[in-house]
Amino acid sequence: MAEIGKGVTAGKLALNVQKRLSRAQEKVLQKLGKADETRDTAFEELVANFNKQMTEGSKVQRDLKAYLAAVKAMHDASRRLQDCLADMYEPDWFGKEEMDALVEEMIEKELDNNLEDTDTLWLGYHQNLTDKTLLCMDTYLAQFPEIKARIAKRERKLVDFDSARHHFASLQKGKKKDEAKIAKAEEELGRAQKIFEELNVELQDELPVLWDSRVGVYVGTFQSLAGQQDRFHKEMSKLSQNLNDVMTKLEEQRELNEEANHSESTSPAPKSSVTNGSDAELPPGFLYKVKAVHEYTATDNDELELKVGDAVLVLAFDNPDEQDDGWLLGVKESHWFQKKDISAKGVFPENFTQKV
Which residues does 22 contact at the CB level (< 8 Å), separation at least 6? Predict the structure, then answer.
C-alpha cells in the first residue's frame, strides 16, 4: 500500500474522505427532514455553558494581560517622573538630601517577600500579579481546547451513529433482504454507538465539573489580585506620604521667605512692633517675637497653647540647660500687654511658629 504521508496510508485517507462524505450526506438529509436527528437538549445546555465559560475566561485573561501591561507602563512613567523631580530639585531648596534619598528609595525600593527575580516594588508587584493571577488563568483556560476538540468529535460521532442507524434500518426494510449486509450494518451500528456513547458519557461527567470550577477560579484570581493591589498601594502610600511631607515643608519655607522679605520691605524694626517704641514694655528676658503658623495643644502645664496667628514674645530661659532642642519659652503678646506679667509663660515647639 503506497505511503501518502507520515502515519497516513492511502487506505486511511480514502476512509476519512468517505466518512466526511457520509457525514455531509447525513447532515443534508437531516436538514431536509428526510432523516431524523438524535437530539440531547441536556447536553446542548452543557455545551452552551462550556462556550459561555470559555468566552468569559478568555475575556478575564485578556483584561489581566492589559492590566499587567498598564502596570509596566505606569512603572516606567513613575520612574521617569521621579528622575525628573530629582533633576529639577535645586540644591538650596529645603530637604535636598532627603529628596534625593526619597527618590532613590521610590525607584529602588526593595521588597521583603522572598522573590529572587526582582528587587523593586513595581517589578515585585508585576511579578506577583503574573505568578499568582495570570498564570492561574492560563492554567485554567489551557484545558478548554482539548475539551472543545472532544465536543466536536462527539458531534461527528453522533452523525456517524445516526447514519449507521439509518443505514441499518433501511436494509431491514428492504424488499430483498441481504442478511450478510444487514449483519455488517448492525455491527457498524454497534461500533458507532459504542464510540459515541463513550465520548458522550465522558463529557457528560466532565462538563458539569468544569462549569462548577469557574467560581473557585474567579474567587482565587480576584482575591489574589486584590491582595497584591492592597500590599503594593500600602507600600507606595508610605513613600508618597514622605514625598508629600518634603513638598509641604518646601512650601512652608517658601511662604516664610516671602513673608520675611515682605516684612523687611514694609515694616519698621521688629523691636518697635513689640514695644511701640518703649523698652519699658518689654518683658524681662525678651529676645524676639514669633507668630504661630500651626495650632498646638498643650500636653503639660508648663506648655503654651497656640492658635494660628497668636503672637508670642520669646523669652530667655533662666537656666539655658533646661532648654530642649526645638523648643522655645515665651508668653503671648496679648497677655503681656493686658497683665504686664509673665506668669502665663510656657514652652512651645519652635517649628510651629515663624519669626517676625
Answer: 160, 163
pTM of the model: 0.56
What the block records as the C-alpha cell of 110 is: 526593595
pLDDT in tens, 25-79: 655 566 656 556 667 899 999 999 999 999 999 999 999 999 999 999 988 887 7
Residue that is written with C-alpha cell 447536553 in the block: 43
Largest CA distance in the chain: 141
Distance, in Å, from the CA atom of 356 to the CA atom of 340, rounded to the nearest integer, reads 21
> Treating both helix axes as pointing N-terminal to C-terminal, what angle do 96-108 and 41-88 enclose, rounded to 10 degrees?
150
Helix 144-173 to helix 10-31 angle, to the nearest 10 degrees? Answer: 80
> 10 Å Cβ neighbour count for 301?
6
Q: Is the pLDDT reported for residue 129 higher than 90? A: yes
- Which helix (H) or strand (E) segment holds residue 164: the answer is helix 144-173
Q: Considering the chain, what is the average pLDDT of its residues?
A: 81
The answer to whether the beta carbons of residues 275 and 290 sit under 8 Å apart is no
Structure-block grid coordinates of residue 129: 500579579
DSSP state of 350: G
Q: E-strand spans in 225-296? A: 286-292
- What Cα–Cα distance (Å) separates residue 287 from each residue in 56, 184, 282, 321, 343? 75, 120, 9, 17, 17
Task: Please state which of the ranges 169-183, 187-201, 255-269, 334-348 shows the lowest mean pLDDT.
Answer: 255-269
* Contact criterion met (CB below 8 Å) for 11 and 5: no
CB 303 within 8 A of CB 346: yes
| Residue 207 CB neighbour total at 10 angstroms | 19
Say whether pLDDT at 9 is over 90: no
| Other CB atoms within 10 A of residue 210 CB | 18
Residue with the bigger pLDDT between 132 and 268: it is: 132
